[in-house]
Amino acid sequence: MTDSDPSRFEALQDRLVGCRRCPRLVAWREEVAREKRAAFRDEVYWGRPVPAFGDARATILVVGLAPAAHGANRTGRMFTGDRSGEWLYRALHRQGFATQPTSTDRNDGLRLRRVLVTASVRCAPPGNKPSPAELAACRPWLEEEMRLLDRVRVIVALGSIAFDQVWKILAASGAVPGRKARFAHLAEVALRDGRTLLGSYHPSQQNTFTGKLTEAMFDRVWERARELAG
Predict the structure, then answer these.
(1) Residue 67: CATH number of its domain
(2) Helix axis angle, 132-148 relative to 6-16, nearest 10°?
(3) Could you tell me the pTM of the whole model?
(4) pLDDT at 4
(5) For the segment 135-184, what is each residue's pLDDT rounded down to a tens digit?
(6) Number of folded domains in the chain?
(7) Structural domain harbouring 132
(8) 6: confidence class by pLDDT, cuts 50, 70, 90
C-alpha cells in the first residue's frame, strides 16, 4: 500500500468533515447554512468542513483559500456554486483536466483528471478572512493531504495566503530551497524533492472583475502546470 492509495485519502476526508476545531468558523458556517441566501432558500446547505475534490492520484495539487459562504459551504464541493469556481473549472477544462467546464453541485457529473483541489481553510470564514489562528488550526489537514498525495509534481497556490500556507508545510519538511519566496502570479519555486510550487492570482471576483487576472493569464498557469507535471 502506498501513500497515494485512494482509500487512505478518502478516510482522511471522512475525518475532516467532522472537524470542529475553530469555534468562530463552526458558528459562522452553521449560521449561513440556516439563514441561507434568498436565491438558494429551497436548498439544503452543506454547512460543514469541505473535503478536497478531484483525483486522489493527482500529479497537480491546487490549493485555494477557503470555501465561499454560499458556494462550497452550500454545495459541499470545492469551488462549486460560485464565480471563482466558474473560472477555475472552465480553465481546467480547457487544458483537459476537467470533464466539463461547469461546476454547479456535487451531482453534476464533473470529474477531474490528474488534478485535486483543496484549500488552506476548510470552513467558510466571515468576510472570507480566516484568522492566523484558524489557518494554523486547519494546516494539519492540508499537511496530511500533501503527505498522502505522493504522486504530485506541481502545487498551484491560488493567492498569497495559500502560497504562504503551502510554504510553511514545505519548509517544515525541508523541501524549500532557501529563504521564503515572494508570492507573484506565475511565481515558480523548484523544490528540493523535485516538485514545483507555482503561484497564481486567485480567481476571486475582486481579481477577475478588475482585470488583475484575465483568462489568458489564468490559462498560462495551467499550461505551465501541465508542462511541469510532465
Answers:
(1) 3.40.470.10
(2) 160
(3) 0.96
(4) 56
(5) 999 999 999 999 999 999 999 999 999 999 999 999 999 999 989 999 99
(6) 1
(7) 6-229
(8) confident
